[in-house]
Design a protein that fits this description.
188 residues, 34% helix
Length: 188
């Protein structure tokens, strides 16, 4: 059965490729809209499902994977920053503190829909303004939820992590593997 990743994220593509999965990438094009009153786990699950449904409508015989990731700190949801200033504000808010990264997953197949989410708790060391500005100068934080990539230069900021590292990168592989197995897709 054909496997489709409904995401344009290069990190998600790399993770599925790392597993040896044979898949096609067809990013969802619709606007990401979700109920802002939802808690982060339900928010990412809803967004992941919307992405997967959009692509599945065009490929009803395929298994489609949708995913969405947000960072949550003090009840606020941090998506991708829209500017340097927004990235700096996010990083200052995460400095020296623990926050949560949530990724919602949706796996759609001809047999039905499955959804789920994963949470990983991440603790940053204290960051100076100079470190924040130097990190933003790399360009790395501008396309990532919470304005950082734990698999990149921001690894220098991560003091501790509790949960699935791959969730922080954008695709919780253990949970995804279980969901795929339930629809007959075995990665091993």
């Amino acid at each position: 059965m054909k496997l489709i990743l409904a995401s344009g994220s290069p990190r998600r593509r790399e993770l599925l490729t790392m597993l040896g999965a044979q898949f096609e990438t067809i990013p969802a094009r619709g606007e990401e809209r979700a109920d802002p009153s939802l808690a982060p786990p339900q928010l990412v699950e809803q967004l992941a499902l919307a992405k997967a449904r959009e692509v599945a409508r065009m490929h009803p015989d395929a298994v489609v994977i949708g995913a969405d990731t947000v960072v949550s700190a003090d009840g606020a949801v941090l998506g991708k920053p829209h500017s340097r200033e927004e990235a700096a504000a996010m990083l200052r808010g995460l400095s020296g503190r623990t926050h949560s990264v949530f990724t919602g997953l949706a796996v759609l197949s001809p047999e039905g829909e499955q959804t789920g989410w994963e949470e990983t708790r991440v603790t940053f060391c204290p960051l100076s303004d100079r470190e924040i500005e130097a990190y933003i100068d790399t360009g790395e934080p501008l396309d990532k939820a919470g304005a950082y990539g734990a698999q990149g230069i921001a690894a220098l900021f991560v003091e501790r992590m509790e949960g699935d590292f791959f969730n922080v990168v954008g695709l919780p592989l253990c949970r995804l593997g279980k969901m795929l197995k339930m629809v007959g897709v075995r990665l091993l």
